[in-house]
Design a protein that fits this description.
The chain is α/β, with parallel strands linked by helices. It has a single domain, classed as STAS domain (Transcription Regulator spoIIAA, 2-Layer Sandwich). The chain is 39% helix and 33% strand. Strands 1-2-3-4-5 form a 5-stranded mixed β-sheet. Strand 4, helix 3 (79-87) and strand 5 (96-97) form a beta-alpha-beta unit. Helix 1 runs parallel beside helix 2. It is globular.
């Protein structure tokens, strides 16, 4: 997994590439802990696999952001990853956007 962190219009963007799994989810959380932005987009366009520990890491990130009165959106989910969010009903918990540009526009 590779994570690039940058800002667009005051919103922190985590661009994740690879897999978010038991071996990488803690790394994602460590990178996230360093970010104090109120609004965050996690761009999953280049993520091809997420396991239960990856889902748990994203839920933990969402809880942390909400506790700071911020917002966290997911963008660019592949059909396979989106299906996992739908099966687990996490698509009801997270705002999900078709791509990063739409997430940034709607989260402003």
């Amino acid at each position: 997994m590779d994570v690039k962190l940058f800002r667009e219009g005051g919103i922190a963007v985590f661009q994740v590439t690879g897999e978010i799994n038991i071996g990488t989810s803690q790394e994602l959380l460590k990178i996230f802990e360093k970010e104090s932005s109120g609004k965050i987009v996690v761009d999953l366009e280049k993520v091809n696999y997420i396991d239960s520990s990856g889902l748990a890491a994203l839920v933990e990130m969402l809880k942390t952001v909400k506790s700071r009165s911020g917002g966290l959106g997911l963008a660019g989910l592949s059909d396979k990853v989106r299906s996992l969010f739908e099966i687990t009903k996490l698509d009801k918990l997270f705002p999900i956007y078709t791509n990063r540009a739409r997430a940034l526009a709607e989260m402003k």
